Amino acid sequence: MSNIVIHKAETRGSADYGWLKPNYYFSFANYYHPERVHFGMLRVVNDDFVEGGMGFAKHPHDNMEIITIPLEGALIHKDSMGNSSVVHAGEIQVMSAGKTVIHSEHNFHKDLPLKLFQIWVFPNQRNVEPRYQQITLDKTLRKNKWQQVLSPNEDDEGVWIYQDAWFMMGDFDKGQKASYELKDAMHGVYLIVIEGDVNVNGNALSKRDAIGISEVDAIEIEALNDCELLLMEVPMR
């Protein structure tokens, strides 16, 4: 029997700091929900809106895998490892905080908003040397199928992290069906509808809705409209 949690978009935590308007799938900052602290090794999923020219000043992290997926616009990243880069929509960035890293993130554009997902995953190794990785994704590889954008393997497609996790993205046309087989029976899948409407294992979801499913071998999706999906497979313990 599968274990399912559904997080509708309107039930997410939220805040309004003027320049920053975040939506929280899990407890974060001033938002706390006792049943939404994490999903297995997935600790944070923030759906952020950042005004032009604004951003996060220098701050530290340690022992966390931090993944950033810009959806619209671009961000400027600077860190204590000496990295300074611009991350555009269509790219993915990962930072293994390890022992400790200090970084800042700002909207690259002065007059355009930045929309992004920031995702934190608990690592399976502590106090590693901090590392940074950024790649451009070929969106044509996810047309009506899953494109791997993250894995635990340095030589695989996409970025890699210190955890047995796999992230997939897919753009599916209305009426298309697809399945996803989990890598491990002890894992679960957390899926977010970035755009559109989809049926996941019999559950209808719309834009920015999310579903967490564990104790299954596979999930089945059907695109009710053209949709864009982010799927995250993580260990449950």
N- to C-terminal separation?
A: 18 Å
CA gyration radius, whole angstroms: 17 Å
Low-confidence residue ranges? none
Backbone structural class: mainly beta
Structure explained in plain terms:
By secondary structure, the protein is mainly β. It folds into two domains: 13-136, Jelly Rolls, CATH 2.60.120.10; 139-235, Jelly Rolls (Sandwich), CATH 2.60.120. The chain has strands at 3-7, 13-14, 20-24, 42-50, 55-61, 65-72, 74-79, 84-88, 91-96, 101-107, 114-121, 131-136, 147-151, 159-160, 166-172, 177-181, 187-195, 198-200, 203-205, 210-214, 218-223, 227-235. The strands form four sheets. It has a seven-stranded mixed sheet with strand order 1-20-17-22-15-13-14, with no helix packed on it. Strands 2-3-4-11-6-9-12 form a seven-stranded antiparallel sheet, with no helix packed on it. The model has no long low-confidence stretch (mean pLDDT 98).
Task: Please render the helix and strand layout as text.
Layout: E1 3-7, E2 13-14, E3 20-24, E4 42-50, E5 55-61, E6 65-72, E7 74-79, E8 84-88, E9 91-96, E10 101-107, E11 114-121, E12 131-136, E13 147-151, E14 159-160, E15 166-172, E16 177-181, E17 187-195, E18 198-200, E19 203-205, E20 210-214, E21 218-223, E22 227-235
Parallel strand pairs: 13-14
Antiparallel strand pairs: 1-20, 2-3, 3-4, 4-11, 5-10, 6-9, 6-11, 7-8, 7-10, 9-12, 13-15, 15-22, 16-21, 17-20, 17-22, 18-19, 18-21
Attribute tags:
237 residues; mainly beta; Jelly Rolls; 7-stranded mixed β-sheet; 7-stranded antiparallel β-sheet; 22 strands; globular
